């Protein structure tokens, strides 16, 4: 069938969970046997979030093809159990960049370039391109209706409906029904205004997704339907949920597929959510609990570790275990207060950039290694695990990373540009960032050593593919000394970059250069994170 489009807009205010709502709708459709893709449009002018501070933006999610994207793309992949590409997220910056490049190349044959039609045409072309080959495309528009920067996108939506017809394009408006304590009432007026704003630009939503803290009465639902001009069955109440993974189930119970099927002229849509439902039950009321010590430095910015904290939830759900996180600020961790790690069942060092908090992380690694506590190091976590081992086991006291000391005499971690493979060719796909850095981004092959924990964890697969986002690499000059002292190089890229290390004389001490969290999904948890969580559960018992 021709792709059908579901546009998701937000009203009243931001942070209403449009990303989760869009993911949930797409999940229901996919579970009903349809081919579904999903797209996030970010109306900001940055070309991508790669150069934005985590303060501004939360996590940068990396796709297999090496794009640095919005964190919602991570939610999409985790819900839909699929890998998306750079086409699944675009920004105003990208749209203007293409149009201006075309203009410079004379492609518009002397025309005056305007928002309408040129920018809007570029937007429509990008949307249709992602929809190709799918039954449905869910399009989430970032920001809130009424934002100046969102206008061209709303115009694109309006035009697409005009061109393709109302059986091919529907619009869902996610909005807030606030509860006003003083009046003891839920209020629908902000939603009415937001829908009026949409109508002013020619869009009448078919479905209202009403976020509220408390259940919405029948009367208020009817009032909303009447004032927003949607059918009675098209006001879907989305009450706050205990877990984001409950949302698809809640939406289904609320009957969201009825108006979707009706508007698209489809027979009833029937998803199979059995497996999902079972996993959600294990998230909400699991049999076991463990606590992981998460030693990071952006602790007031937990959003910047989104994929990793979700990956722990996925792994936990699959073994009926709640994974509690004990957040530990690496800048405050020294050998005096290291005992705060005493009650954890596993220690996790996530990725990170820069010198701040490094010594605290190294202390935590020493503690995990010496006390045989399950340990997983990710990216910077692997680099530090190597430094810790060289300094404290191999006795190379000044082993360091060029990231922390450019002139270090023992550059055990050094710059990617310095790497030349054995054929004399650098085969690393690099990416020059506008800030002058070169990042290794996206999916790469990794070959695992057969007699390793990581090999077993990945179900005896020799070749795995995982995603990267880093600038520095472990220096192969130190391989021999690491192995001689008991740290195994258990994963390497085809051109012999060090991708994983582990300590043989330890129940679970694994560190990886890639970011396993980017490929973790609720129905398909990442293998090494699952193995880590399992070993933490064993350690506890
Ligand atoms: N700062 C390190 C590097 O650039 C690690 C990056 C990361 O952990 N994502 O290589």
Automatic annotation (TrEMBL):
<keyword id="KW-0547">Nucleotide-binding</keyword>
<dbReference type="Pfam" id="PF00117">
    <property type="entry name" value="GATase"/>
</dbReference>
<keyword id="KW-0315">Glutamine amidotransferase</keyword>
<comment type="pathway">
    <text>Pyrimidine metabolism; CTP biosynthesis via de novo pathway; CTP from UDP: step 2/2.</text>
</comment>
<dbReference type="GO" id="GO:0004359">
    <property type="term" value="F:glutaminase activity"/>
</dbReference>
<keyword id="KW-0436">Ligase</keyword>
<dbReference type="InterPro" id="IPR017456">
    <property type="entry name" value="CTP_synthase_N"/>
</dbReference>
<feature type="binding site">
    <location>
        <position position="14"/>
    </location>
    <ligand>
        <name>CTP</name>
    </ligand>
</feature>
<feature type="binding site">
    <location>
        <position position="223"/>
    </location>
    <ligand>
        <name>CTP</name>
    </ligand>
</feature>
<dbReference type="GO" id="GO:0003883">
    <property type="term" value="F:CTP synthase activity"/>
</dbReference>
<dbReference type="InterPro" id="IPR027417">
    <property type="entry name" value="P-loop_NTPase"/>
</dbReference>
<dbReference type="GO" id="GO:0005524">
    <property type="term" value="F:ATP binding"/>
</dbReference>
<feature type="binding site">
    <location>
        <position position="352"/>
    </location>
    <ligand>
        <name>L-glutamine</name>
    </ligand>
</feature>
<dbReference type="GO" id="GO:0005829">
    <property type="term" value="C:cytosol"/>
</dbReference>
<keyword id="KW-0067">ATP-binding</keyword>
<dbReference type="GO" id="GO:0044210">
    <property type="term" value="P:'de novo' CTP biosynthetic process"/>
</dbReference>
<dbReference type="InterPro" id="IPR029062">
    <property type="entry name" value="Class_I_gatase-like"/>
</dbReference>
<dbReference type="GO" id="GO:0046872">
    <property type="term" value="F:metal ion binding"/>
</dbReference>
<feature type="binding site">
    <location>
        <begin position="15"/>
        <end position="20"/>
    </location>
    <ligand>
        <name>ATP</name>
    </ligand>
</feature>
<keyword id="KW-0665">Pyrimidine biosynthesis</keyword>
<dbReference type="Pfam" id="PF06418">
    <property type="entry name" value="CTP_synth_N"/>
</dbReference>
<dbReference type="GO" id="GO:0019856">
    <property type="term" value="P:pyrimidine nucleobase biosynthetic process"/>
</dbReference>
<dbReference type="GO" id="GO:0097268">
    <property type="term" value="C:cytoophidium"/>
</dbReference>
<protein>
    <recommendedName>
        <fullName>CTP synthase</fullName>
        <ecNumber>6.3.4.2</ecNumber>
    </recommendedName>
</protein>
<dbReference type="InterPro" id="IPR017926">
    <property type="entry name" value="GATASE"/>
</dbReference>
<feature type="region of interest" description="Amidoligase domain">
    <location>
        <begin position="1"/>
        <end position="266"/>
    </location>
</feature>
<comment type="similarity">
    <text>Belongs to the CTP synthase family.</text>
</comment>
<keyword id="KW-0460">Magnesium</keyword>
<dbReference type="InterPro" id="IPR004468">
    <property type="entry name" value="CTP_synthase"/>
</dbReference>
<feature type="active site" description="Nucleophile; for glutamine hydrolysis">
    <location>
        <position position="379"/>
    </location>
</feature>
<feature type="binding site">
    <location>
        <position position="14"/>
    </location>
    <ligand>
        <name>UTP</name>
    </ligand>
</feature>
<feature type="binding site">
    <location>
        <position position="241"/>
    </location>
    <ligand>
        <name>ATP</name>
    </ligand>
</feature>
<feature type="binding site">
    <location>
        <position position="403"/>
    </location>
    <ligand>
        <name>L-glutamine</name>
    </ligand>
</feature>
<feature type="binding site">
    <location>
        <position position="223"/>
    </location>
    <ligand>
        <name>UTP</name>
    </ligand>
</feature>
<feature type="binding site">
    <location>
        <position position="471"/>
    </location>
    <ligand>
        <name>L-glutamine</name>
    </ligand>
</feature>
<feature type="binding site">
    <location>
        <position position="72"/>
    </location>
    <ligand>
        <name>ATP</name>
    </ligand>
</feature>
<feature type="binding site">
    <location>
        <begin position="187"/>
        <end position="192"/>
    </location>
    <ligand>
        <name>CTP</name>
    </ligand>
</feature>
<feature type="domain" description="Glutamine amidotransferase">
    <location>
        <begin position="302"/>
        <end position="532"/>
    </location>
</feature>
<dbReference type="GO" id="GO:0042802">
    <property type="term" value="F:identical protein binding"/>
</dbReference>
<dbReference type="InterPro" id="IPR033828">
    <property type="entry name" value="GATase1_CTP_Synthase"/>
</dbReference>
<feature type="binding site">
    <location>
        <position position="72"/>
    </location>
    <ligand>
        <name>Mg(2+)</name>
    </ligand>
</feature>
<feature type="domain" description="CTP synthase N-terminal">
    <location>
        <begin position="4"/>
        <end position="266"/>
    </location>
</feature>
